[in-house]
Predict the structure of tRNA-binding domain-containing protein.
Amino acid sequence: FYCPNAFWYVYLCTVPVLLHVVETTTNKLDQLINSLENELGERSVPINPDDPWAAFRLKTFSVSPFLQVKSCDSCSYKLTSPFERKCPQCGFKGEQPEAFPLLTVEKMLASLPKPAPAPAAPKKKQQKGEKQEAKPKGNGGNGGSSGDEVSEGWKKCAVQVSKISSIEKHPTAEQLYVIQLDVGSDKPRQVCAGLVKHYEPEKLADRLVCTMMNLKPKKLRGVASTAMILAGSEGDQVRIVDPPQGSAVGDVLYLDGTEPNTNTPKALSSTIWSKVVTGFKVQDGKATVAGKVLISSKGACAVPDLPNGAEIH
């Protein structure tokens, strides 16, 4: 009698299929584990050869020799590093077990042994008679221009003594003063200067200052600025460069050991000025450019209370 729903028929038909599926799945999983372990290679944690359970796995299954198997301290469960962090039998007592208690990829990679650093390349030996090439040095610190570039740029700068005739706050910028300068024969110049934090207005009124006269005019927050008052700075300290004692409005400033600059351009290139600034420093309380003191016919320009190397701009 043929009955397709009979138990024996279902058993004989389905069990071999299920066994085949389980066997195929196990083989695929085994191949995947092998592939991952082979990719790790020597970076994996070595297996403990004294562990009999691990030795049994090596002989019975396709297990990488780079895995490490160790016993739990509280029970006999075998933990496989680096995949198991806690013992599933006793490591989660009193707490909610994780759905997938596995390490993250980052932590797994961090647990792997670090590769040895590559050996440094041997230095090339200098041959006899071969001179070592000297490295060029700048006067402006790292990335500074050379002394020749600073000196050549300075020859195009027009610097003189001016007098502050009036001072008021900038209408839209709290850190700026709007200053009117008496420059002598030329018409008055207007300057926007960031000196609010460092000088009260009464300390600046009628004061003689050193001014850069031929920078390109520009607007600061909508107010024109046609010159620049020279000042040194170090951190939060700012000090105006003082002209020599006895100076008068219009006195020309130049470098010690040189002649006053002539034929200076009406508008100095910002590129040239940026090179000059790298060599504009405080040295022994005096303003210097490329190591030469800024002077007039009456003496040297001073920058009080600032250390050597402080920038002037």
